[in-house]
């Protein structure tokens, strides 16, 4: 255990790590926004009583929930370009994989959230003459979303962690930058330790937030 | 879309893919074997330890939960061997990483389960003269573990999905085998689609099983989720 720690390369290559951090945050933010947006529609589709709407949505959700996300990213990077009309670079492939994965998981959160609202709310809104869309938008969703916040924050935590998988297809996020530097500077110990710490600093506040939100939710219910 | 599908490469190498699947299950199984007891220890340290035990346990759990598994895996595979001066092969690094990684999640499941048991159970056990350890062992854990089963199985499924990372340090799991076959045959579409389908079949089967179990336990009493 007489290893001499030397973090000087971490300092020297700090700008490279910062680029990686920026890319990690961009990827996570893009996938979170797109995932939560489309998740609502898929969640609503699964809630629908029309089979033509319900079944494809269910199949989509089950496929993306029951396959490893790394396989999804690899599929979009190596297999999808063969049948895709557009060119797929590492960022597109990672965004596709992570977004669709987030869509699948968040649609389940929307579904559970919507189902947790009592039937009386729907009936009361209907009695006031609201259409289905109005009931959903004005009465159900505002109440349901408040209950879904802890689960969504949890998804965000998972998503930030999952962006590190984009390093496997050489997207220049934090993990990939660290790998590159560690090869140039021969310092895997310091490099990977630093990256773990950076991720921890990035994610720990989010997970603490989840815990507090869940505690608050438990108290209020 | 004039692409001609050709699955002959997949059929010709199906035994390699199956071997990969067996290796995936092996890593998952061993990580569960080590991760669950370790998770129990961490949970007990966090719940009942003094400060010297509680804080490190809390920190380990939070650190393992708040860093990406791939960062942990790379640390154990690339960094730890230099630090210790020993060689660590991909298999050992994988089992080590995923045992520790899953132990943090299992610790939280244990904690949730133990905390969900009504205080009256503790008091009743105390009233008939049981020590704290005996209460935990005979009264609390048996009830808590039953409630935790669905959460455990869900974590086990998550773990199996996460083990695909071992392909990045060239341990021959299902994804690694798919990579190898795809690279040598250029049939990426067929190979990756097949690999995804294989994962889907195995994981969906497990998920359905968990769903049914949850349903049954849900009827017989409340359950906690991790």
TrEMBL record, chain A:
InterPro entries: AA_ABC_transptr_permease_3TM, ArtM/GltK/GlnP/TcyL/YhdX-like, MetI-like, MetI-like_sf. Residues 21-210 form the ABC transmembrane type-1 domain. GO terms for biological process: amino acid transport. GO terms for cellular component: ATP-binding cassette (ABC) transporter complex. One of its GO terms (molecular function) is transmembrane transporter activity. It comes from the Bacteria. Part of the binding-protein-dependent transport system for glutamine; probably responsible for the translocation of the substrate across the membrane. This is Glutamate/aspartate import permease protein GltK.
UniProtKB/TrEMBL annotation, chain B:
The keyword Cytoplasm does not apply. Part of the ABC transporter complex GltIJKL involved in glutamate and aspartate uptake. Probably responsible for the translocation of the substrate across the membrane. The keyword ATP-binding does not apply. GO terms for biological process: amino acid transport. Residues 21-210 form the ABC transmembrane type-1 domain. GO terms for cellular component: ATP-binding cassette (ABC) transporter complex. It is a multi-pass membrane protein. GO terms for molecular function: transmembrane transporter activity. The complex is composed of two ATP-binding proteins (GltL), two transmembrane proteins (GltJ and GltK) and a solute-binding protein (GltI). Keywords: Amino-acid transport, Cell membrane, Membrane, Transmembrane, Transmembrane helix, Transport. Belongs to the binding-protein-dependent transport system permease family. HisMQ subfamily. It comes from Ahrensia marina. Pfam families: BPD_transp_1. This is Glutamate/aspartate import permease protein GltK. SUPFAM superfamilies: MetI-like. InterPro entries: AA_ABC_transptr_permease_3TM (IPR010065), ArtM/GltK/GlnP/TcyL/YhdX-like (IPR043429), MetI-like (IPR000515), MetI-like_sf (IPR035906). The chain crosses the membrane at residues 27-49, 70-88, 191-210. It is found in: Cell inner membrane; Cell membrane.
């Amino acid at each position: 255990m007489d290893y001499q720690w030397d973090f000087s390369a971490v300092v020297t290559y700090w700008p490279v790590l910062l680029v990686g951090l920026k890319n990690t945050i961009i990827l996570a933010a893009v996938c979170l926004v797109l995932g939560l947006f489309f998740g609502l529609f898929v969640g609503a589709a699964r809630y629908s009583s029309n089979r033509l709407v319900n079944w494809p949505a269910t199949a989509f959700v089950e496929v993306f929930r029951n396959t490893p996300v790394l396989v999804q990213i690899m599929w979009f990077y190596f297999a999808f370009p063969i049948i895709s009309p557009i060119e797929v670079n590492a960022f597109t492939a990672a965004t596709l994989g992570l977004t669709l994965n987030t869509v699948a998981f968040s649609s389940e959160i929307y579904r559970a959230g919507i189902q947790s609202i009592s039937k009386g709310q729907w009936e009361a809104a209907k009695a006031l003459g609201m259409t289905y869309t109005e009931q959903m938008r004005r009465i159900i969703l505002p109440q349901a979303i408040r209950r879904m916040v802890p689960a969504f924050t949890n998804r965000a935590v998972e998503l930030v962690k999952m962006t590190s998988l984009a390093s496997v297809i050489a997207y220049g996020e934090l993990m990939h930058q660290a790998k590159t530097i560690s090869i140039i500077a021969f310092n895997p110990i310091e490099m990977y330790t630093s990256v773990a710490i950076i991720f921890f600093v990035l994610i720990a506040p989010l997970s603490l937030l989840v815990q507090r939100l869940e505690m608050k939710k438990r108290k209020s219910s | 879309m004039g692409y001609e599908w050709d699955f002959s490469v997949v059929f010709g190498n199906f035994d390699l893919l199956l071997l990969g699947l067996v290796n995936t299950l092996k890593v998952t199984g061993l990580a569960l074997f080590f991760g669950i007891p370790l998770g129990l220890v961490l949970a007990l340290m966090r719940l009942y330890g003094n400060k010297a035990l509680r804080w490190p346990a809390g920190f380990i759990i939070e650190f393992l939960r708040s860093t990406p598994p791939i960062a942990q895996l790379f640390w154990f595979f690339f960094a730890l061997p230099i630090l210790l001066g020993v060689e660590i092969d991909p298999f050992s690094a994988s089992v080590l990483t995923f045992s520790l990684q899953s132990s943090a999640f299992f610790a939280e499941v244990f904690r949730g389960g133990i905390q969900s048991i009504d205080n009256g159970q503790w008091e009743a056990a105390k009233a008939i003269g049981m020590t704290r350890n005996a209460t935990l062992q005979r009264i609390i854990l048996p009830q808590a573990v039953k409630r935790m089963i669905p959460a455990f199985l869900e974590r086990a499924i998550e773990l199996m999905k996460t083990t695909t990372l071992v392909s990045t340090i060239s341990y021959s799991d299902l994804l690694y085998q798919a990579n190898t076959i795809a690279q040598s045959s250029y049939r990426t579409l067929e190979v990756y689609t097949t690999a995804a389908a294989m994962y889907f079949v195995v994981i969906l089967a497990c998920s359905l099983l968990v769903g049914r179990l949850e349903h049954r336990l849900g009827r017989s009493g409340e359950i906690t989720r991790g």
